[in-house]
Amino acid sequence: MIKSRASFAWGGACLVALALTGCASTPPDEDPVQIKLKDLDTRLVRIERVVANQSLLELANQSESLRGDLRGMHNDVDLLTNSLEASRKQQRDLYADLDRRMKALESRGASGGGSGVAAAGDAGAAAAGGAGDAQGSDDKSAYQSAFGLLKDSQYDKAIVALQKFLSSFPNSQLADNGQYWLGEAYYVNKSFPEAQAAFQRVVDKYSQSRKRPDALLKIGYCQYELKQPELAKNTLTSVTTQFPDTPAAHLAQQRLEKMAGEKN
């Protein structure tokens, strides 16, 4: 009886042990909610990676596009710079050519015994009167006629004709040009005080004229010829500061350098 009970107890213990062993070897079922969350988390990470890659691609494309635009802008700037420099060089060359021609006219006038208006006397006035008759009534033809006399080296006649043009057409759009060329005619005749006064009138009266830089330059030239080096230096320096990057400023700088060399 006692043995039977012991056997039964031992058998029960074995069953309990086997049950416990079975429970330990069989994993419990995973929570479906946790499975779903893990799946969603995995998908979310994958989507974030895709979005990140697309954003980087878009940024790379935008960066490359900006680089292309920047290269295009650099090319445009280079073209504009080259064009501006070419234009400035052309202006300097044209002005230098004009200055050479005027110097040639000066030399020709000096060798031909040309003098100022006072030396021309009544003969010059009469010739100018004849030129005035040919000028007609409009300002353009009067200006062209007077300028033609200047180009033909008839400086005395040109002076009188330009004076008549300015008195007849004071409000002409060509008046500033006429005033400037009057100064040039005096300058070629070496009538430097009269030339300086004519150029000064361009500066004072025609503030918007394109001839102002040239007129101021020639005032400096006149002061130089009149042995007024300090005044000439100040005037030529003002040309370089008031009208930088112009042919007049370039020539003013050349004259300043020449004057500095003469002092040495």
- The CATH level-2 architecture of the domain at 94-263 is identified as Alpha Horseshoe
Q: How much helicity do the residues have?
A: over 70%
Computed structural class: mainly alpha
Under CATH at level 1, the class of the domain at 94-263 stands as Mainly Alpha
The end-to-end span amounts to 146 Å
Strand content: under 5%
The count of DSSP E runs of length 2 or more, i.e. the number of strands, is 0
Gross morphology: rod-shaped
CATH-defined topology of the domain at 94-263: Serine Threonine Protein Phosphatase 5, Tetratricopeptide repeat
H-E order: HHHHHHHHHH
Whole-number mean pLDDT? 75
Oligomer classification: single chain
- Radius of gyration, taken over Cα atoms and rounded to an integer in Å: 48 Å
* CATH homologous superfamily assignment of the domain at 94-263: Tetratricopeptide repeat domain
